[in-house]
Amino acid sequence: MRRSGGAVILMQQSLNRIEMGQLKVLAGNRELCLDRQKKGAKKPFDETVLDWMEHVSKTLLHLPEAKQYPDVLTFAFFIRRASMEEQRKKYGVSQEDPHQILMGRGLVFHIAPSNVAVNFAYSLIAGMAAGNQNIVRLPSKEFPQVDVICRVLEETRECYPDIWSRFCLVRYPSEEKEITDALSMLCDVRMIWGGNETVAKIRESGIRPRAAEITFADRDSICVIDSDYYCSLDRKDQIAKDFYNDTYLSDQNACTSPRLVVWMGSRINEAKEEFWARLSGLVEKQYEMMPVQSMDKWSRACLLAAKEENVTVQRGTDNRLMRLELSELTENTMNYKGNSGYFMEYSCKDVEELAVISDEVLQTVSYIGNRECFLPLLESGISGIDRLVPVGKTMDFSFVWDGYRLMERLTRTILW
Predict the structure, then answer these.
(1) CA–CA separation, 61 vs 59, rounded Å?
(2) DSSP sequence for 272-330
(3) Entry pTM
(4) In Å, how far from its chain's centre is CA 221?
(5) Which of 97, 221, 303, 305 is 20 to 30 A removed from 47 (C-alpha atoms)?
């Protein structure tokens, strides 16, 4: 760094050969990591970019290997042309002011979370749709879904060479701070997905003065079920599958996965028995759990019972489903969250009781019932709850996420 007039000016850094040797490029243009490529930004939802997405979508949807992973197919469905046209209508360029031009900001450096396999791909698509070049640091944990998607993206080098040159998907040891430093100094926007510790660690690497930053830190999600509404439904098996997809497919590691189930209405006991029985049957058939996960669930249950009064542990036929009945909600409730089939549950009379735990912590509320009942809570001025979606839709990505309108944050407006 050098100083000018008392201000600290961050000097742009470049990766050296040794640092580049630490990079494993799984797809895309390696040269993006060496220096800023003067290809320029594109307008949001550029036609060639949408054609590229459609090609990737069709390839994944017809790939036998991809069909093993529901999250990969969901991603492929999201990026199909019809879906992107809907996104363009919602978040594309407004034609109301002919003296405004919307363009991508330049280069986006994405840091993907380590515990959700396909999140990196959605982050990349947001950057590409907004008209940017993109460097994505892939999850440190190796997922087969990552390999499948990266292989298909790399294969677009032949048919879409210009679009292929606008992204680079890399993996490198997280302790290699020099690499993060250099890539951070290249970017116009840095997107950090991960927990609070990840955000704090990445922020040790500076960005240029005009660069922007978007952070997705620790968040929690819950599910609210109207017992009367649930008992009136005929599709209870489908609801069990939807809830399973929201939770067990990611081992409840995704920020969108419900950790707490809140019951409302006059038929709570009846609804509970039916709901958990159907889920338990599905879990027994489809979910495999390691011994360490089982021990962790018991440890968390013991800690919760020791810290809070009147906690009742409810078990399924085995430890793959554990429920802990709470007598009250407090501002500390979500501190006792678990995963791998670990659910706290609470019965309430008024949805506004959720306000005690909603301060910034809550991200997604999934529901079975009438969503209109949540309006008083949402309009009360709470700082938490950014999404309200039906059960089964918690993992559905949108260009509005954690309260951010991504198309606005990833673009710049030119007045002329």
Answers:
(1) 6
(2) HHHHHHHHHHHHHHH----HHHHHHHHHHHHHHHHHSSS-EEEE-SSTTSEEEE-S---
(3) 0.88
(4) 12
(5) 97
CA dihedral 161, 46, 399, 72 (to 10 degrees): -40
Confidence of residue 97 (pLDDT cuts 50, 70, 90): low
Identity of residue 40: G
- Cβ pair 26, 170 in contact under 8 A: yes
pLDDT above 60 for 11: no
Q: Which residues of 5-42 are buried (b: 16+ CB within 10 A; e: fewer)?
A: eeeeebeebebeeebbeebebbbbbeebbeeebeeebb
pLDDT digits (tens, 9 = 90+) for 153-190: 999 999 999 999 999 999 998 888 999 999 999 999 99
Q: CA angle, 63 as apex, 57 and 69 as ends, to 5°?
A: 85
Q: Decide: 105 and 189 in contact? Cβ < 8 Å.
A: yes
Kindly compute the dihedral angle of the four CA atoms of residues 299, 303, 304, 306, in this order, to the nearest 10 degrees: 140
Strand partners, 260: 222, 344
pLDDT of residue 239: 97
- Averaged pLDDT, 287-301: 87
What is the pLDDT averaged over residues 225-232?
Answer: 96
Among 138, 127, 118, which residue's Cα sits nearest to residue 73?
118
CA distances from 113 to 91, 105, 171, 213, 298 (A): 25, 23, 12, 16, 26
Q: What is the mean pLDDT of the chain?
A: 89
Whose tokens are 């709570």? That residue is 268
* Radius of gyration for the alpha carbons in the chain, expressed in angstroms and rounded: 23
Amino acid (one-letter) located at 18 = I
Strands 220-226 and 362-368: parallel
Tell me the residue type at 344: M
The answer to whether the beta carbons of residues 72 and 44 sit under 8 Å apart is no
Is the predicted pLDDT of residue 274 greater than 50, yes or no? Answer: yes
Residue 414's beta-bridge partner residues?
101
Of 134, 128, 178, 116, the closest CA to residue 28 belongs to 134
256 phi and psi angles, rounded to 5 deg = -85, -10
